């Protein structure tokens, strides 16, 4: 487990727990009591630390390498996943994973960014940073879902779209714009959940949904704090300050009306309690899907378009 900078107290307690576990003693009962005390102390410390994380600390939690990614969600909360590949134009982009699956008894199209968990898988999935063909694949799958009248569920977790020259040469901006347009246009329910990082246009291209949800310790922003700091102050060391002013936390975005629902995480973060977090997401997805059932395609499309038009009105941000 990778410990974040603000988790030093937890690291010390875990080290002590390991020491107690390997201690040789005849007092098994006393050892068990000490372990129980340390575990309670650890959870209390986590509760205190995670009760009021700063925006910069939430950035660190959202990016944690052990946080569950799209493939983890697919394996845990969906059934009968049938992966669909390629954009039918250029190539397969493994930064975007998608296909038909079952959520409970409902057939859905699930599409999400995949970052990978180790060096090999991160390189394979390009750290979740999609190229134009990735977003064109997502568009193809959304249209396929619309053709069959199947709801779309997107899992957003990317630092942003691929920033390299080859992406620009193949029309990165157009692909992102077309992805956003498709989200707003399809006549089936679209539920978007930010499960980690929601970075820039690479996120919005898959997040313009009827219902937009965020995990408690995820982030969603037009630019990364580091990128913002490099533009405003010409120095990455101001990233924590940038995180404060970007309003990128779930609480900020719920207050501003950008998202609809905050999904609580266990104290200690999704990286410590992945299964509990994923099951909470499953419940939230099922509730959101049930709320959209019975609406016509035209109603669903109009709801999304009205939602985003409302965000452009200045009075929305007066507070």
Give a description of the structure.
The chain has helices at residues 8-21, 28-51, 55-62, 70-77, 119-124, 132-148, 165-169, 172-185, 200-204, 225-232, 239-245, 250-256, 274-292, 297-311; strands at residues 79-83, 96-103, 106-113, 152-158, 190-199, 211-215, 219-221, 261-263. The chain is an alpha/beta fold. It has two domains: 5-52; 59-317, Alpha-Beta Complex (2-enoyl-CoA Hydratase, Chain A, domain 1). Strands 1, 2, 3, 4, 5, 6, 7 and 8 form an eight-stranded mixed sheet that branches. Helix 6 runs parallel beside helix 8 (172-185). The two termini are 40 Å apart. The model has no long low-confidence stretch (mean pLDDT 93).
Write out key terms for the chains shown:
single chain, alpha/beta, 2-enoyl-CoA Hydratase, Chain A, domain 1, 14 helices, 49% helix, 15% strand
Mean pLDDT: 93
Q: What is the CATH topology assignment of the largest domain?
A: 2-enoyl-CoA Hydratase, Chain A, domain 1
Determine the structural class based on helices, strands and strand pairing.
Answer: alpha/beta
**Unreliable sequence segments:** none
CATH architecture of the largest domain: Alpha-Beta Complex
| Share of helical residues | 40-55%
| CATH class identity of the largest domain | Alpha Beta
Task: Work out the oligomeric state of the chains in this entry.
Answer: single chain
| Biggest β-sheet description | 8 strands, mixed
Along the chain, the helix and strand elements come as HHHHEEEHHEHHEHEEHHHEHH
The number of domains: 2
- What fraction strand? 15-25%
Outline type? globular
Would you report the number of β strands? Answer: 8
Question: What gap, in angstroms, lies between the N and C termini?
Answer: 40 Å
Helices, by number, come to 14
Rg, nearest Å: 21 Å
CATH superfamily of the largest domain: 2-enoyl-CoA Hydratase, Chain A, domain 1
């Amino acid at each position: 487990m990778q410990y974040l900078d603000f988790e030093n107290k937890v690291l010390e307690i875990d080290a002590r727990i390991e020491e107690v576990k390997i201690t040789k003693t005849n007092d098994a009962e006393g050892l068990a009591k000490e372990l129980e005390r340390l575990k309670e102390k650890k959870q209390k410390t986590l509760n205190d630390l995670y009760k009021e994380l700063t925006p910069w600390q939430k950035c660190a939690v959202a990016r944690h390498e052990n946080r569950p990614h799209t493939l983890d969600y697919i394996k845990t909360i969906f059934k009968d996943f049938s992966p669909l590949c390629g954009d039918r134009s250029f190539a397969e982009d493994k930064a975007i994973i998608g296909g038909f699956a079952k959520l409970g008894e409902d057939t859905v199209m699930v599409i999400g960014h995949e970052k990978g968990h180790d060096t090999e898988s991160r390189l394979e999935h390009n750290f979740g940073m999609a190229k134009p063909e990735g977003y064109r694949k997502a568009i193809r799958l959304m249209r396929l879902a619309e053709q069959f009248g199947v709801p779309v569920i997107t899992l957003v977790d990317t630092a942003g779209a691929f920033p390299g020259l080859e992406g620009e040469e193949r029309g990165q901006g157009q692909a992102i714009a077309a992805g956003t347009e498709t989200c707003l246009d399809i006549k089936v329910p679209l539920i978007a959940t930010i499960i980690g990082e929601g970075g820039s246009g690479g996120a919005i291209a898959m997040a313009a949904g009827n219902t937009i949800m965020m995990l408690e310790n995820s982030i969603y922003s037009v630019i990364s704090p580091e990128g913002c700091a490099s533009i405003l102050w010409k120095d990455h060391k101001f990233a924590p300050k940038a995180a404060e002013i970007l309003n990128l936390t779930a609480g900020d975005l719920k207050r501003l009306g950008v998202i609809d629902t905050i999904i609580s995480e266990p104290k200690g973060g999704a990286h410590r309690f992945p299964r509990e977090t994923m099951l909470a997401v499953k419940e939230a997805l099922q509730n959101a899907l049930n709320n959209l059932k019975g609406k016509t395609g035209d109603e669903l499309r109009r709801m999304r378009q009205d939602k985003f038009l409302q965000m452009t009105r200045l009075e929305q941000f007066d507070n």
